[in-house]
Amino acid sequence: MPQKELERQLLDEISGKQLMEYAQYITSEDRESGSPGEKRAAEYFRQVMGDLGLDVEIHYVENYISLPVKGTLTLQNGEALASCITHSYGASTGPEGLTGHAVFFTGNEDVSGKIAVMRGLASAVPCKNLENRGAAGIICITSGDYPYNMSISPIWGQPVPSTVDMISKIPVLTVNTPDGEALLKALEKGEDQVKMTAEVSTKFRTVPICVAELKADKPTDRFIMFGGHLDSWHKGGADNGGANAVVLELARVFSKHTDLLNTNIRFVWWSGHSNGRYSGSNWYADTHWEDIHYNAVANFDIDTVGTKGSNNFDHIECNRQCYTLGRTVVKERTGQDPHYMRIQRNGDQSFWAHGVPTLFECLSLQPTDGAGKGTFMPGLPWYWHTTQDLFEHLGEEELLRDAQIFALAIFRTAAATAYPFAFGELAVEMSSDLDNYQRIAGDKFDLSGVKELVEELSGKFRALDAEIVRLNSLAEPGDEDLSRAGRVNGLCMDLNRILIPVHYCKNGDLFQVDLAIPIPAFPEFEEVQKLAGMDPATDEFKFLERQLLRERNRVYHYLKKAVSRLESEGL
Ligand SMILES: [Zn+2]
Questions:
Q1: What does pTM read for this prediction?
Q2: Would you say the C-alpha torsion 179, 184, 185, 191 has a positive or negative sign?
Q3: Is 221 inside any structural domain?
């Protein structure tokens, strides 16, 4: 059957009704990490995937989980602000609470020994900043009527001795907008004494990590990973019940077509995304390092899809070499042309050091002048991370559409003769990253050698992309083409292993884990900013210059390795 017809058949087999049925079951109970509702969902995964004939493993493991229990905030006039919540990995105050002077922090105020009040989400970077400035506690004011649940730990996954001390030592609360305005009004009147209590339960808990492998008929160790987080804030209708349902439904549909697959598909549900700061995927990444490093072709992450009224495909979060595939399928299914967004350090991105590229995370968004207006990320629905994220926010049509987009992208990777990566634009991105650093460094540090290598890569990438397109356009590839495709696929695997760590990971050691905070491209070169402001005659300049030289050597070495690897395939 021609490819297009096969795809059409596959998409027609995805059932909106079945998706909603799965989602309704999963989202009928709260699913914080380690909770009975999460376990119930995990056992449902076991049942559904087992019935489909997949190899299922539910790993019940001990992860360091933090559950917000209760937060209270009382103003000087005795009024208690009812919307108050606390956060994963914040400190507890004990029943006596913390009483102190509150100060509204807008960037420069002295918060030392005081309770800092800020607008925005309780997240790792602003909370750590206030803690470092000596704040005794933090109160965040978020938009709307429902405060947003968050985790404030800067540690990715499980803490280790070198990171555990970064867990917050101060309590953090969030209130909604009306309560936040009442607090700010009190501060304006000089009534700045407030009392906060926070109870957070942080300890090792047993959580489920769900893995089900669909084997291609042709034996192979290579696999595509597809899934997202299982734990949710409250009932998590959209985030992440709809996405969980898509994982089950695509397993059902793909299980009928194992004859068409050239790679296995590993369906996953991670626990500990919110209450463990990605501890589920981090556990899996640490525990199965070799398998992931050698065999994972790509990671398809799915989060907060299928919400009623979502019609906005503004961007695709991914590694650049996956963008062409994502863009093509979104265009085909929606008529919209999403722009590229470099994948961020969130959303269970635990596999960069292993060299695994990611496509997607969130996908369809709310219109930014409607239900997605004024939220943390424009387009995320207003009920995201709140008690109001319920099953009723999922739309059957929208969920089906999003499931079809994922299915098409996964199918075109798993069934392709050659993996449908497109590396050409990656060189453009790298080149622009380096130009940016060079502009900042001025004449104090020279990146031209690295830049020249990227230019060399660029031409070879284009030749590789053309070869991939040629191989995938063959209706019936002969033995020679298939053998060439095997080598091209091996080359793509190697290029991802060489380039993703050097472009994305701050830590040169692939077996350690970077923090859960934003990390820039070629993170080693971030320090040029500091160098640019230094006097070259100082010792400090010379120390930092040498560090940057070592880091430039590392980047150069890996880019050179990529060039050689491309040359070894005649490119
Ligand atoms: Zn989510």
A1: 0.96
A2: positive
A3: no
